[in-house]
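Objective 1b. Sequence-to-structure analysis of Amino acid transporter transmembrane domain-containing protein.
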Amino acid sequence: MDKEFHLVEDLEEPLLDKEENKDEDFESKRILIMSKREQKKRDINKIDENGHIKETDTGATPLRYMEMDDRKALAQYNMKSSLLPYLTSPHSPVYKFAKVVTSPAIYIQKKIRPGGIKGSIFNLICGVLGTGMLTLPVVCLQNGILLGSALIVAGVLLTAFCGMCIVVCSEKTQTDSLEFIAHIAFGHTIGRITSYSMIMCQLGFVTSYIIVVKTLIPSIIKRLMDGALPSVLSNDKFVQISIATIYSLLFLLPLSLPRKMGALRFTSLFGFACCIFLVIVICCIFFFDKAVVPDPLDNITEANYLDFSFASLFTSFPFIISSYMYQPMIPAIYKNLENRNMQRMEKVVYIGSFGAVFLYILISVFGYLSFSTNPEQLEILRVKQNILELDFKHNVYFEASIICLVVTIMSAGPLCMLPVKDCVEDLIYKNEIMTDSQNVMVTLLLTGICYAAAIVIPSIGDVLSILGLSCNPYVGFFLPILCYLKLEDNKPIYMMLAAILILFITGSFSILGIYGYVTTKIM
């Protein structure tokens, strides 16, 4: 019995302790709840301006009953806590904008990487944009806005077709050079002719750059000095020769000596930005600069929209051809394209081509419209064949765009010299690499040829006319189509018919254009 009693007693004591602990916990919770309610009644429930009870979270002091310093501190804390995720998130527009501003080169290198779709499109657009920005307004002047724009679009369609022909040939031959494609398709002689033609194209572009520099720098000096030039600068011919000499000897020759591009690659990005800036400035001048365009509606109504004549077509043909000379770049772009196939390369060619033609049409249309009621300026555009020669009434943004373009053009000359020296090395020195002395002599000879041509040829339009009627059609149109017809076995019938039609059109326009250019110069 004693043993059993002790067992029952031992069992009952823990139960009693548990009930007592439970009562104590309940009492402590009840007291805590009551204290919180009392705290809430004292500090939280306040009467607002309308006589209503305004309740906030338990334990929080309403903002209106805080001291001013506490209010400011709380506001700053809330702003930081709410904006911090927005500012630091990689997907935030503010974060992206900060990355672009603080390190634009790194941002562009990540987004537009070589070999990607965006990088390839960017390289193609940079290869297209050039002197066509200055001369294509002449196309709208000679043919009217509608026909001129249609010709510019037709030019890019023909160029894109020939570019895709080169892609097919590059895939067939597994080469990244237009000269090697020509050599495989038609033999050693055609390959050498292609190399000489490409040398002429590049030297022609360098010559046009020297002409632009020698004509624009004196006009910039005149505008900055309001026409009051010293007597030594009053002779325009002497000033142009002097500037061409200084640029060729002190800038073009030294920067053309290296065999690698190096930092000069960034000039393509700078040149692209300058072209965009020029297009925006021309469009804004038409709409907002009353000194140049007093009434845009008058200019629109007085403009010529359709002026069809064979003479105008033949005159415009070389400008259009020279504005889309990116065909030699196609094999290298295709070789560097990631996961390359015909569909991805078609995307690069067509997006890049139509991105460039959009800018070309904008500057051509609005450049012509800005002076459609000014016959004197239109005659200057017809003769000089350069939109930068027109009088934009000392517009500050236009002057800035001219200076930027001159700097870009001065830097683009050495870039054109590098592939020329590579072609010369392949033609003359075969499998050998030029020594330093040979490199200096070749660079000096090429610079001298471009300098002499720039002194003799009066305007950039003459250079582009000569190139657009001779070597440019061969390199950009004849050769790609002929190589495609020779190398591609399974040609669709529509591709073959289109190729033959383009050959006929470009060949006819080249022959008739040469005749028209010669007769115009003689007359």
